[in-house]
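## tool: complex_structure
## caller: assistant
## args:
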Amino acid sequence: MKTIPPERVSVIALRMLREALGESVETDRDQLYPVAYDGLKIAGSPEALIKIERSEDVSAVLKIANEYSIPVTCRGAGSSLTGGATPFQGGWVLDLSGLNSISIDQPNMLAICGPGAVVGELQEQADQLGLFYPPDPSSKKFSTLGGNVACNAGGLRCVKYGVTRDYVLSLSGYLPTGEFVKWGRATRKFATGYNLRDLWIGSEGTLGVITEITLRLILATESRITFLAAFEDDKSALGAPLALCKMGIRPSIIEYMDRWTIDCLQKYVEKEVFTGIAPRPMLLIELDGAPEVLKKEQEMVSAWLRNSSIDFRTALEESEAEELWEVRRQGSSAMKKLANTKLNEDIVIPLNRQVELVNFVNELREEFKLKIGVFGHCGDGNLHVNFMYNEEDPLETDTAVTALHRLMDKVISLDGAISGEHGVGLAKTPFVRNQFNDAEWNTMKAIKNTLDPKGILNPGKIFDVFKPWDQKKENVVLSWEHK
Amino acid sequence: MKTIPPERVSVIALRMLREALGESVETDRDQLYPVAYDGLKIAGSPEALIKIERSEDVSAVLKIANEYSIPVTCRGAGSSLTGGATPFQGGWVLDLSGLNSISIDQPNMLAICGPGAVVGELQEQADQLGLFYPPDPSSKKFSTLGGNVACNAGGLRCVKYGVTRDYVLSLSGYLPTGEFVKWGRATRKFATGYNLRDLWIGSEGTLGVITEITLRLILATESRITFLAAFEDDKSALGAPLALCKMGIRPSIIEYMDRWTIDCLQKYVEKEVFTGIAPRPMLLIELDGAPEVLKKEQEMVSAWLRNSSIDFRTALEESEAEELWEVRRQGSSAMKKLANTKLNEDIVIPLNRQVELVNFVNELREEFKLKIGVFGHCGDGNLHVNFMYNEEDPLETDTAVTALHRLMDKVISLDGAISGEHGVGLAKTPFVRNQFNDAEWNTMKAIKNTLDPKGILNPGKIFDVFKPWDQKKENVVLSWEHK
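## result:
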């Protein structure tokens, strides 16, 4: 039996880590601060940063960490919006951004990638070979595949193409003990033993450390058409997913913006989206596919929009489409002008309950006199509900938090989920318990205890209640937030 | 502490079961025999059969079974080819075929089904509403959705549309303790907590009992074209998946039959598939989609076949296509004429390793003087390798088993999996251990021990070595085997 006094454990562990990994271990305060927080901007106090250059080094780190029960938090770009990459319980940060290789196997339509590879770079490389990796979170220009797998990231095109999970064929990596494992194979079919691959996907770095991801790619889309339309009311706009489906059309994107988002946006850019009409709910619809089919579908969608919308525009060219997308992209920045703090909730509900949810948000807005904007992926029921408030104002904060709890209860009652694509991290821990009954919750905890008995991997995430609104936010600008 | 002598435990448990469930409990020998075996035809000795009429009754059964450590084996149609539904360690058989409801939610493109619903019936009902449930195991006319989920069933169209897992949105059911759980929601996106849904899928009834399955459906295909082609050699035939993909074509089906299968088939039906040519490797290719696109693709595939095949036929109509499919379907029956026992292995390997595998099978055939036919889903690397032998001949049996072990080692060395769609059950337990390293194997066992600590659910499956060739096969004809 070791009899090291607890206060010395981390010192000894750190010394062993240095012996094993030498210069890739940083303990300098200046180096540690930028990895102390992520997109949630709430900082932890890491004791060391380990820049991983070779997969095998992950094993060495974990063996020591597991022996001495040191928390280990994995990090790619650090763009998690939920605090998923925040080392909130201290310990070591495992920076996997250096494992950023992308190797595309064109004949087999596969990509073998490091967890640090940036999603957008994979998409660009695939595109050059006539291939396509569909998941496209808004963060795709900087977020990494490891993080995307860790929280089963989605994005805009999931309505037609599915989420990250739908493209992962196999995952290689390490258990908390430092033992190497590979879950799944580079084959679409697999019926041999338990599916740990899909248990790791979405487990937010709490069950293992991913060092290689094999993804399937699909054939690139031949052409695209984009529509921007304004509707009389939410019901007309949110009817689109079901109406188009009934016509036999499966759009690649259907994005919704409520009139509050549009209003905010118009004030921000000082320009009307559609001239002469008051701010209205809008949709951005993209169709993709073979030109022969697209032509027919374009006519059908146009006919439907003529009947159902107040006004609409069509973009056949990439550059025209880009203008329409700019409207959607500015939504988030515009909203930040309303108040200094945004609680961005990525709830998901069944398609036919969306109107009910948006009506409920309208009631909340009125009852609590809150600034709330709703936009997002209405093609798959994944709406982003943004609560804006000033965090220095305790009353405003309290009100926003009360309303947020009401929203989450409503989401669960509509048979939805509190997170569709961001994960639980720290930010959604106040709500996650209500998503599950006792048996479900205990099963998840039992799995965590079995696969990570010392609880070293990303501790505090998913299971422990953490209230982000009670915490000081770091006054930092992330590299991708620069204009 | 209870102090019941072990021999009396099952009697007491059975009495409690009768008290709880009354007439749905059968213990009559004649009633028990038909559920003592499944498609593997090796019989266990069940002590009771419980015909489940209401989901809640599953909870009552499991509570008693778990208290008294009684094995519980779930059963749908009993069509498992691996012994997955065989109550080999005795105990109780839970017949879920009565939970066969199918409820299609057309606007949301969902199906909510009982585990006892037959796959083909769901497909027919969906088709009438212009919707499509793609997974199509050859057993679809009788196999149930519960079984399909339990072993993550595949089929022919997976090459384009994916496997059962790709369509399951949520699963409801019971833990071994009898506690109700629901994993996932009727939404495509879900990033809230651990994904137990996909852990249950493919776990062959060893982790929980499924009582409701929510599936997503897609829009029905507009039209189809089928090609049957004979090739000079395996290399030319097996090059099709990559060649077509390179042309930007994604067929809905690519089925391969080696020349041994064709030879066997031609002798069986006393007719040549293509007149005047010796038995050659053949492909059945199906394209589906919008007519405008299909027309273009038909020309491309025809041009490719003119260059690459010896001879080919095209079927534009359903009835013509049916004739071509009949060729493929008789493969299995024809093969049964070669010997009385068939070991049907549904291995899966990366697309570009298929020629290597088929060459290896050719070497085995020669070295061991064995009758082996290979056919199957070469579009996704899921080849069915059929070893034919007479089980009364110990030498022939030994030879087949030795060759089979060699095949499985080869599959694993090619980075494939020993089962692509049938599951491990009993039949593949002699090979499954080699698929995993110690860490992977121990992780899977740890999950089993955590989620089913008393080991009551489908005991003996996946983890314990069982040699089907050492067992007596029941001389029975299953209902779907009748001509």
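## assistant note: The longest strand of chain B covers residues 209-216. The mean pLDDT of chain B is 94. Handing back to user.
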